[in-house]
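Duplicate of #3305? Posting structure anyway:
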């Protein structure tokens, strides 16, 4: 009988030790399994990032393209509005000529224009105008006088309304011009 007891007690001990090994083994496995959970915790916050960017990129093709199209349509009229500020106006004017001599500019002629600039300004290429019609320093293109725009830097008692007086370095050149009706381009 005691042998039987002995046998069962051995079996129980064996079983207990087996359970202990299994328990220890499963504990190691559990700890081992628990450890990889830590990096998972870190990887979880990073997971929504790609899904978010996907969400943005899904919205992106629709809305910004429509916005770009609107911007392009808006840009065209805007450019058209800005351009008229630089437009050129063609005005038919009665154009005479003068030089810096006393015959043209009176006994006190000193070669200084009403703007204060000397007659040598712009290579002696400029005009006198009625400043109520063309403000001082306005640029005009006068066919037959110069191909380049020339400035208004002078005025004269006889130059009123749509009249211009072209400056020439000699009285003879001024006389040659005489009096002409010319389509003057006013640059504004
Ligand atoms: Zn003269």
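Output from current build:
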């Amino acid at each position: 009988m005691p042998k039987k007891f002995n046998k069962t007690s051995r079996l129980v001990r064996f079983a207990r030790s087996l359970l202990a090994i299994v328990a220890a083994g499963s504990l190691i496995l559990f700890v081992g399994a628990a450890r990889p959970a830590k990096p998972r915790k870190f990887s979880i916050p990073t997971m929504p990032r790609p899904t978010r960017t996907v969400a943005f990129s899904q919205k992106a093709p629709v809305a910004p393209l429509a916005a770009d199209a609107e911007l392009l349509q808006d840009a065209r009229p805007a450019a058209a509005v800005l351009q008229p500020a630089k437009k050129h106006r063609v005005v038919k004017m009665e154009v005479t000529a003068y030089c810096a001599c006393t015959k043209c500019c009176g006994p006190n002629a000193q070669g200084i224009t009403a703007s204060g600039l000397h007659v040598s300004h712009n290579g002696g290429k400029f005009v006198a105008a009625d400043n109520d019609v063309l403000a001082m320093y306005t640029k005009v293109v006068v066919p037959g006088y110069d191909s380049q725009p020339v400035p208004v830097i002078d005025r004269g008692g006889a130059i009123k309304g749509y009249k211009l007086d072209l400056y020439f370095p000699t009285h003879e050149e001024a006389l040659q011009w005489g009096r002409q009706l010319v389509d003057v381009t006013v640059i504004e």
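Confirmed duplicate; merging threads. Helices lie at 2-34, 37-46, 48-59, 63-82, 102-105, 171-177. The domain at 87-187 is CATH 2.40.40.10 (Barwin-like endoglucanases).
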